[in-house]
Specification:
Elements (H helix, E strand, L loop, with lengths): L25 E7 L4 E7 L6 H8 L4 E2 L7 E5 L2 H19 L6 E11 L22 E7 L8 E6 L12 H15 L14 E7 L6 E5 L4 E3 L16 E9 L1
Antiparallel strand pairs: 1-2, 2-9, 3-4, 4-5, 5-11, 6-9, 6-11, 7-8, 7-10
Length: 248
């Protein structure tokens, strides 16, 4: 006779009061590409980033239905977004001209890359944008080491576009359609540098407790190389905290 054992509850990790700036916090605004778009790079962001890893390890990650993200996600408590706004507000104004009082929405989650190359959709084999609205910022917080791969930004060869906003969307879609009609779909692998359709304009290595902020209209992709291990464990996989801020 089989016996059903009760599930062992995961410990609850409380983030309240646990998020503060690292004493060696540093930041720089890096212009990239021919169009000179800005990426805000922060190193040594939080004094205790391990509390986020511990929290993520207590979460249940689920698959995502959107077109681009090749993995699983779990929600982050609202206190994390509050900390981002408090700690990065002045830097975001200086880099992008967007003040915190103009935020009209936010979305944050933990993410783990878990999709093997053979299972990638065609859009997941290409660099992507998150939105065509220049008033949306992406905040990417690495909670893993450099061995898991950083993030690169790209220029589309056919159109020469490095970002795609509302005014460029039709041109970019047409360019991609012409690419695929001419060459067929790219092979089932992650883009990790120059390709026949795209050229890399900048690359930022992953570093534990490093944070990147950039406009969601910029063409970008995670650097997932051939030796990548698609580890679903928050403590040992490619764990990141991904946040979007929407500005009016």
């Amino acid at each position: 006779m089989s016996v059903t054992r009760p599930a062992v509850p995961r410990p609850v990790v409380d983030l309240n009061g646990q998020l503060s700036l690292h004493p060696q916090f540093s930041s720089a605004v890096v212009p990239i590409g021919a169009e000179g778009v800005s990426v805000l790079v922060v190193d040594n962001f939080l004094s205790r980033p391990q509390v986020l890893v511990d929290y993520a390890a207590s979460c249940v990650f689920e698959g995502v239905s959107d077109t681009f993200y090749p993995g699983v996600r779990a929600p982050i408590p609202a206190i994390y977004c509050f900390a981002l706004r408090a700690f990065l507000g002045r830097l975001i104004v200086e880099a992008f001209g967007l003040a915190s009082e103009r935020i009209v929405g936010e979305l944050a989650h933990f993410s783990l890359v878990t999709t093997p190359p053979a299972d990638l959709s065609v859009p997941q084999r290409l660099p992507h944008i998150d939105n065509t609205d220049p008033g949306q910022l992406a905040v990417l917080h690495y909670l893993c080491g450099p061995e898991h791969g950083g993030t690169s930004f790209y220029r589309h060869r056919r159109t020469r576009l490095e970002f795609v906003d509302h005014t460029r969307s039709a041109l970019y879609r047409q360019g991609i359609a012409e690419d695929l009609a001419s060459t067929g779909p790219p092979p089932p692998c992650y883009i990790c540098g120059d390709s026949p359709l795209f050229e890399r304009t900048a690359s930022f290595a992953a570093a534990y407790n490093r944070l990147l902020v950039y406009r969601s209209i910029n063409l970008h992709s995670a650097d997932i190389g051939p030796g990548f291990r698609f580890d679903p464990d928050a403590r040992s996989g490619r764990l990141t905290a991904n946040t979007f801020f929407y500005y009016r």
